[in-house]
Design brief:
Length: about 150
């Protein structure tokens, strides 16, 4: 729940920032000179890109949570039995052991979104965020029946 609240607060702050920047862009355009209009248009591009990025990330998180709920209902969510350091961080060797199992499971069933979902969690636990996101995107695409690009 704390993560959802943090995400919502961050999104709200970003939207406020985008509105603020957008209003400055409009003010520059209203000035009417060539330089301020050009600058205003350039300034308006930033909130548009930011809003698109925020929307895409929100969609990604929503879809990943839907898959997690579906997998949980099936009883297929991986159990978090990883060893932890005294500070609470996941032990790297423990994460690597689970990752090896998840990778083998995914190689055995590459068209099953469930294996890709569990692999994404293993990547995340191994602190490889970029690969975790790609694996989760693949799980979402497989679940939705969309074509999956070659890895």
């Amino acid at each position: 729940m704390r993560a959802k609240i943090t995400y919502l607060v961050t999104a709200a702050v970003l939207v406020f920032y985008f509105v603020l920047v957008g209003s400055r862009g409009v003010m520059l355009i209203q000035s009417g000179t060539f330089v301020t209009v050009t600058f205003g248009v350039a300034v308006l591009i930033l909130p548009v890109i930011g809003l698109w990025f925020l929307w895409k990330n929100t969609q990604f998180v929503r879809r990943a949570n839907q898959l997690a709920s579906e997998l949980d209902a099936e009883g297929g969510l991986p159990v978090d039995d990883l060893r932890r350091t005294p500070s609470g961080r996941i032990d790297r060797d423990s994460a690597d052991e689970v990752f090896a199992r998840r990778k083998a499971e995914t190689e055995a069933a590459p068209e099953d979104w469930r294996t890709w979902f569990r692999l994404a969690i293993a990547y995340h636990d191994a602190r490889d965020t970029a690969r975790a996101r790609k694996a989760m995107q693949r799980a979402i695409a497989l679940h939705d029946g969309r074509p999956v690009p070659a890895a």
